[in-house]
Amino acid sequence: MKKITGLTKHWEFILLMILVAEFVIFTLANPKFLRPVSIMSSVTNYISICIIALFVTFVMITGGIDIQAASIIGLTSITIGVLWSDADLSIWGAVVCAIILSGICGALSGFFVAYCGVQPMVVTLGGSFLYSGIALLISSLSKTPAYQGISKFPLKTQDGRFVGFRFLGKGEVFGFLPMPIFIYIILIVICYFLLHKTKYGRQVFLVGVNAEAAKYSGINTRLIIMSTYILSALGASVAGILLTSNVDSAKYDIGSTFTLSIITAVVLGGTLSTGGKGSIAGTALASLIICILRYGLPLCFGISTQNLDLPVGLMLIVVVVGRAMAQKGLFQKVFRDRALKYRN
User: Fold this and answer.
1) Which of 24, 112, 164, 242 has the smallest C-beta neighbourhood within 10 Å, fewest atoms?
2) % residues pLDDT > 90 (the chain)
3) What angle separates helix 36-61 from helix 69-85, to the nearest 10 degrees?
């Protein structure tokens, strides 16, 4: 029992139990839920949000917030499309330019937050409008109407295999694992190592706990804060590249509805909005929980995809309340009382 009570102190363990419960409930409701191909497809469709949530975790641990990431997805997508289709730039050259532009956007917002003292909510809200506007402006430079989107990206062989740029979104590795999921796994490992195993990660946590104390201990707090917004923008750029490759369409507003899901995944993963606490494992598990919920509810219970925000919101409330109970030791008290009753 001591091992169980110890595990309940870790929020990641609670999230894992919720994920297991989802699989059990959905499988009992509809055995077709466990089809690997369908699960992989569902996760792939949601992978952009999962990727961005990893990097927004860095921002929120410092006590900030990033609601401009969804706009950077669209900016990345349309930049790739216009540079490739209208500027005759190679697809990989367009990808590099889009990544650089996204990094500049993140650096600009991070500069205003870290060096000018502007509230992160205000900066990133303004950034979301600014970068959406820039994306729309770029789309007007294309011969293709904005509402249609730029498509027919290279390359696909005659036998139907995706290669080149399209391989990023539609290809498979090891014969079964979609490339976007493979990239996501790699990013989880990189982010986990960066946040939890490096000096930089410790500095991110220290800035979130007490920025003034971190400053007096010799940490360049402004640079640390600014760097998290750059990382978040680069993560959004990667998500935009994968999404564009997957759907074979570059549009200025692609991913524009992702903001709430991104923030929900980070908060649900255990990252405090006030900063100083969070984990990559928690964010990854929370993202997967939301993804499986959105896949399982329509398939097993016939809930319309248009109404999925309601159960996701309810789940968020229940889980946040459960986390508060765990932090107050209520779960441990239940297990302890049961243990004493068993002994008697």
Assistant:
1) 24
2) 52
3) 110
Local structure of residue 145 (DSSP, 8 states): -
Distance CA 228, CA 56 (A): 8
Cα within 13 Å of Cα(245), Cβ side: 29
Neighbours of 36 (CB within 10 A): 8
- How many angstroms separate the Cα of 232 from the Cα of each of 60, 128, 226? 10, 13, 10
Closest to 316 in 3D by CA, of 290, 298, 292, 294: 290
Cα–Cα distance between 45 and 58 in angstroms, integer? 23
Helix ranges restricted to H, 86-178: 91-114, 120-139, 165-170
What is the CB-side half-sphere exposure of residue 123 using CA atoms within 13 A? 21
Backbone angles phi, psi at 173, to 5 degrees: -115, 150
Q: Is the pLDDT of residue 17 over 70?
A: yes
Which is more confidently placed, 154 or 76? 76
Say which DSSP state 155 is in.
-
Distances (CA, A) of 212 to 90, 207, 215, 220, 253: 47, 8, 5, 10, 39
User: Counting Cβ atoms within 10 Å, is residue 279 exposed (0-12), middle (13-18) or buried (19+)?
Assistant: buried
Contacts for 204 with CB less than 8 Å, ≥ 6 apart:
58, 61, 62, 195, 224, 228
Give this prediction's pTM: 0.88
How far, in whole angstroms, is CA 73 from its chain's centroid? 12
pLDDT tens digits, 54-112: 999 999 999 999 999 999 999 999 999 999 998 889 999 999 999 999 999 999 999 99
Q: What is the pLDDT of residues 283-322, one digit of tens each?
A: 999 999 988 988 888 888 888 877 877 877 777 677 667 7
